[in-house]
Amino acid sequence: MLGIGVGAGFLGALVGIGGGVLVVPSLVLAFGVPMRVAIATSLVAVVATSTAAGSVYVGSGTANMRLGMTLEIATTLGGISGGILAARVPTGWLSGAFGALLALTAVLLVSRREPEPAPPGGEGARGRRGWESPGRLAGGYVSARGQVVPYVAARTPLGMLVSFAAGIASGLLGVGGGFLKVPAMALGMRVPFKVAAATSNFMIGVTAISSLFIYFARGDVVPALAAPVAIGIGGGALAGTAASHRIHPVVLRWVLGAVLAFVAVEMVLRAAGVTLG
Questions:
Q1: Contact 49/19 with Cβ under 8 angstroms?
Q2: How confident is the model at residue 116 (pLDDT cuts 50, 70, 90)?
Q3: Angle formed by the axes of helices 193-218 and 249-271, to 10°?
Q4: Residue 112 has pLDDT above 70, yes or no
């Protein structure tokens, strides 16, 4: 379980998904953990990922806190709703719908091109940190090559809508919702992928907590399971943030696309009543 946490934390920090998409199936298939306990354990792990990775991304200026907290309003409402619905509504049809959406998102994500970096200078001459533009959902980040990449977030209502759906997915399935937030910001809002992944890492902890307290009240949080996974995922997340600065955004997009495709197949099979293992 410690090893599962390390791997999930590393991948989650790289692409901003929290690692829950790996923790839940690993616990259920490899250890025979009941689904609701696995979901609760995954939510604890997501909080650990966000705490470890999000703080680093905020410190480097890559995460846009203004954008993250704006979208988190909708995501928190979705997370509470998902946590309540988890005990009352069968999730089979939701799994099928999310699976189809993830498959489409994976295709769109890997086909998207990053904006061309601007030459250093101007507003980018702010040292080696990224920045946020006051009063706007905009800013810039410094790439691994030292080039300045400015951006302006677009289609905020679309981002809010997808963030609400991500919150519901978090509460229902025990994931951080980053698998929807990152594509929503990168595709729908035209935010650079690295900024989207960093901002998602900053957000997912709040999303997970909004539904985690519901699972905790039901007694689904088992410390003996959550502790080793959380410890492993915290260390993996720190390693992932360190590696992200040296990996090209195209590689990160393909990694996330592959993860989304895997989760899409798993969700569709689960909706059809087919389980692996």
A1: yes
A2: very low
A3: 40
A4: no
